[in-house]
Design a protein that fits this description.
Helices cover 30% and strands 19% of the residues. It is an alpha+beta fold and 241 residues long.
Length: 241
């Protein structure tokens, strides 16, 4: 796979098997009534089941495992009990459940000036975030630059969960925002994937948000709760890694 970092001609058929043909992985966090598999409503712990699935995938290739796990990560704060946002799940379900192509999401966090410091909410408290979201009427207008998100470089076809600030330099958790942006939204621009030393099945690149506009409902939880729930999902990412 390491020589397949640009075209993914070997990687994509495997991803299609995992996400669509055999595994249907991209459907697991959506309710059955929306065409999903409703893993979140199983009587036993879905987290334990997902951990076993990703451990097995990782035996084949770690980067495929990372790309697959992160593809679902943005949905975690609207699709895992008790954090259920049915209105957004209904809106996004066709993108993931009514297609024969693998759909990758991403968490767009890291930035040129702060890297993954953004994930340390308790220490940095959002003050290094330069990607700014401003509420203009019924829409969020987003401008900024993200660096190296898993599944960037053209891989993302689903939804991005973009970490933003509503007040640059603020350490108030109310100004820390998670806003969903479908990858095909006008103003989203992805660079070419980087050639890395391994982990080639996970594409990484730059993403620019240039006056990107999404409905205000695409900030699913709002002031204070975004930061609180991000603490949880950042730790899930560490566990997954």
């Amino acid at each position: 796979f390491d020589e397949d970092w640009l075209d993914h001609k070997y990687v994509e058929p495997i991803m299609k098997d995992i996400f669509v043909d055999k595994g249907s992985l991209q459907k697991v966090l959506f309710p059955i009534e929306l065409g999903g598999l409703s893993f979140n409503y199983l009587e036993y712990r879905p987290g334990a089941l997902m951990a076993r699935i990703f451990e097995e995938i990782g035996r084949g290739d770690t980067a495929i495992d990372v790309a697959a796990g992160v593809a679902l990560w943005p949905l975690s704060i609207i699709g895992i009990e008790p954090l259920i946002k049915m209105d957004l799940l209904e809106e996004l379900a066709p993108m993931y459940c009514e297609t024969e192509e693998p759909v990758f999401g991403m968490f767009a966090m890291t930035e040129p000036q702060g890297g993954s410091d953004i994930e340390n909410v308790d220490h940095v408290r959002g003050r290094t975030i330069k990607t700014v979201a401003r509420l203009e009427g019924d829409e969020w207008a987003i401008n900024g630059h993200k660096l190296w998100p898993t599944n960037s470089g053209g891989a993302t076809k689903g939804v991005m969960a973009v970490i933003c600030t509503t007040k640059p330099g603020s350490t108030d958790p109310k100004d820390f925002a998670i806003i969903y942006v479908p990858a095909k939204t006008k103003g989203v621009r992805q660079g070419a994937p980087y050639k890395k030393a391994g982990m080639a099945a996970d594409k990484n690149s730059d993403i620019w948000f240039e006056d990107v506009r999404v409905p205000k409902e695409y900030r699913p939880w709002g002031p204070g709760l975004d930061a609180e729930y991000f603490r949880a999902i950042a730790s899930w990412g560490s566990f997954g890694s």
